[in-house]
């Protein structure tokens, strides 16, 4: 079982609070995490002054849940088996489990830990669920080379890659059909 020492601290950190030192600044919310120091979340200005030469990742928000860009986290952590999503043109994954009502009939892929429905035939919906799976079963790993990740019996994880990135597009699509306001009398 290979779990980086900073992972549990990252997953239990509270992000997006106002920085005690730089709270009045424009970028004073705590959305950074230092893998070297393994302390609390900090803001953009604290990074410049205290974590200049450290390995830092930025946490983002999606629908009130913390996410991290795949391009940042995959440099330091094996994220195989975790569902990724494209949000605002960036591939991300969720840090922790998200509550979800019971999945309906016809859902083909479920998170092994929380039962959340997945888009792809993967094992976990978040890094937090993968951590629980590694601790519980020991048949998954966070080592960067990916050794230790085993397939569940009956899965076809190697056949189906994670959701591919959409092709770059310069045209912006509308989010819906425009509706005019009713005429007043």
UniProtKB/TrEMBL annotation:
The keyword Signal applies. Keywords: Signal. It comes from the Eukaryota. InterPro entries: PLATZ. Residues 145-185 are annotated as: Disordered. Residues 146-155 have a biased composition (Basic and acidic residues). Residues 1-21 form the signal peptide. It holds the Pfam family PLATZ. This is PLATZ transcription factor family protein. The lineage of its organism: Eukaryota, Viridiplantae, Streptophyta, Embryophyta, Tracheophyta.
């Amino acid at each position: 079982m290979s779990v980086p020492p900073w992972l549990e601290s990252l997953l239990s950190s509270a992000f997006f609070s106002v920085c005690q030192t730089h709270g009045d600044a424009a970028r004073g919310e705590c959305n950074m995490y230092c893998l070297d120091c393994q302390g609390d979340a900090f803001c953009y200005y604290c990074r410049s002054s205290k974590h200049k030469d450290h390995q830092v990742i930025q946490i983002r928000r999606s629908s009130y849940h913390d996410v991290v860009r795949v391009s940042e986290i995959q440099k330091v952590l094996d994220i195989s088996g975790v569902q990724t999503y494209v949000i605002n043109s960036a591939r991300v994954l969720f840090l922790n489990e998200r509550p979800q009502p019971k999945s309906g009939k016809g859902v083909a892929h479920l998170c092994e830990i929380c039962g959340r429905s997945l888009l792809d035939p993967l094992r976990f919906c978040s890094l937090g669920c993968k951590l629980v799976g590694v601790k519980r079963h020991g048949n998954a790993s966070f080592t960067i080379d990916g050794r230790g990740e085993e397939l569940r019996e009956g899965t076809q994880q190697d056949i189906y890659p994670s959701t591919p990135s959409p092709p770059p597009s310069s045209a912006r699509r509308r989010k819906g059909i425009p509706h005019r306001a009713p005429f007043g009398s």
